[in-house]
Amino acid sequence: MVAQAPSGKKPLPDMMTSIRIDKSGQVEIVDQLLLPHSVKWIPISTPEEAFDAIKSMKIRGAPAIASLAALSLKSSLSTEEIRSKSEEEVKKWILDQCDYLQSSRPTAVNLSEAMNRIRTYIKTHTSSSSSSSSSATSASADLVQKVQQICQDVHEEDLERNMTMGRLGAEWLAKKSGKSKLKVVTVCNTGSLATSGYGTAIGVITALFENDQLDTAYYAQTTPYHQGSRLTSLELTTLEIPACMICDTMLGSLFQHEDIDGVIVGADRVVKNGDTANKIGTYQAAVLAQRHNIPFMVVAPVTTIDLSLKTGAEIHIEQRPPVEATQVRGLNIETGKLSVVRITPEGVGEGDKPWQRVYNPSFDVTPAELISCVVTEKGVAERKEGAKDIDVSSIC
Ligand SMILES: CSC[C@@H](O)[C@@H](O)C(=O)COP(=O)(O)O
Predict the structure, then answer these.
(1) Would you say the CB of residue 236 lies under 6 angstroms from ligand 1?
(2) Is the CB of 200 under 6 A from ligand 1?
(3) Ligand 1 centroid to 342 CA: how many Å?
(4) Model confidence pLDDT, tens digit, residues 42-72
(5) Could you say which residues form the signal peptide (predicted)?
């Protein structure tokens, strides 16, 4: 499971990847529920399989779920069943699949952006339904081919833009700190497992490392799903990047005792005024960073920017099932087997008593006034001194 690491001053070992496509075009994903203990590849051939994998978080990370949704649509469009449909039937089928796939997870805008690209093409494509049945078939073949190309583009364009963001973010932070070796903090998982390669926030950390400008990358465990302790730890150890895990509750202590040069996070949706939805725990990291005068950087591709929403209050925050917070999956060191254990008294998160409730939002919103800058592949938008908003339209 390797993607070629980009060349840099410091050579990197091969990166992990969450999606692979074999020579026959079969798409497979690594089951992230089992990482880091077991590497199991699952074939994905249909939108239903992609929907299930995204919803159950076998694959996660804003860009990666958009890629998988698009690739599953591409695969399904190669079937005989689709090829026998009229152009109008194919269009309707694709639009239905876009709605269905988009409903798998609501907060990450990359997924809806990818589906919107396909919808826009379908809606503007000139139909030839009035032609004879044989030319209608060839017209639908053209349509299918074009939509498949859009799906492939969604997946492929991610890697290059991540490398650009990595470079831009590393340059900005190194200049801001003025130091030769930086200590940085990240939350959640934003590397090659969450994207098509190199990563967003982890891309900046990787670029610092490649330039020999990284002292230590601290990463938060990111409960309840443990994207940090399970996935970021796997990526950083695979790349042999100097790193140190902290529990989510230790951020304040870390900021008091270490000279941290920046907090670098990814995003699931950045709206017009710069407010940013990202993994739960990001907001508290931003509040603490401001208290300690530490620059707070958001790194996300243009496809994560949603100019249709004015402020973060409009972002739909996904609620995850309570069991994801009351149960922990891990390796039983006595049996050597993977197991799931409950860490709460029985009934918490499952019963209907007033004392059995669990609050489990998957994301929170960090107001722009706590963010120092937003980095996309188009550039860096800084918040001006004293301003409450960040003009992200300049980097779209
Ligand atoms: C490049 S990934 C950016 C975000 O998608 C990431 O920080 C995040 O919040 C992922 O959440 P997840 O719930 O694991 O899909």
Answers:
(1) no
(2) yes
(3) 24
(4) 999 999 999 999 999 999 999 999 999 999 9
(5) none
Give the model's pLDDT for residue 361: 98
User: How much is the pLDDT for 127?
Assistant: 65
Kindly name the residue from 31, 158, 261, 268 that is annotated as catalytic: 268
Identity of the residue numbered 366? T
The whole-number pLDDT of residue 189 equals 98
Report CA-CA distances (Å) from 29 to 34, 58, 98, 183, 195: 12, 8, 20, 33, 12
In angstroms, what is the C-alpha Rg of the chain? 22
CATH 3.40.50.1100 fits 168-318+361-395, yes or no: no
Residue linked to tokens 């990595």: 166
What is the residue extent of each domain of the chain? 19-158, 168-318+361-395, 323-356
* 334-376 pLDDT, tens digit each: 999 999 999 999 999 999 999 999 999 999 999 999 999 999 9
Q: Which pair of tokens denotes residue 288?
A: 């603490």
How does DSSP assign 114-136, residue by residue? HHHHHHHHHHHSPP-TTS-HHHH
191, HSE (Cβ side, Cα atoms, 13 Å): 29
Structure token pair of residue 29: 């994903």
Express as a percent the part of the chain with pLDDT over 90. Answer: 89
**One CATH from 3.30.565.10, 3.90.1150.10, 1.20.120.420, 3.40.109.10 for 19-158:** 1.20.120.420
pTM: 0.94
DSSP H or E segment with residue 373: strand 373-376
Separation of CA 144 and ligand 1 centre (Å): 30
Does the annotation count 153 as an active-site position?
Answer: no
Flag whether pLDDT at 271 surpasses 50. yes
Q: How does pLDDT run across 191-200, given as a tens digit for each residue?
A: 999 999 999 9
d(C-alpha 199, C-alpha 210), whole Å: 14
| Tokens linked to 78 | 């190669």
Q: How far is 292 from 256, CA to CA, in rounded Å? A: 8
Statement: residue 6 has pLDDT above 80:
no
Q: Quick check: ipTM above 0.95?
A: yes
Q: Is the CB of 195 under 6 A from ligand 1?
A: yes
Q: In sequence order, which residues have a C-beta less than 8 Å from that of residue 379 and are 6 or more positions away?
A: 168, 394, 395
159 φ/ψ angles, rounded to the nearest 5 degrees: -60, -50
Q: What is the pLDDT of residue 132?
A: 47
From the CA of 18, how far away is ligand 1's center (Å)? 13
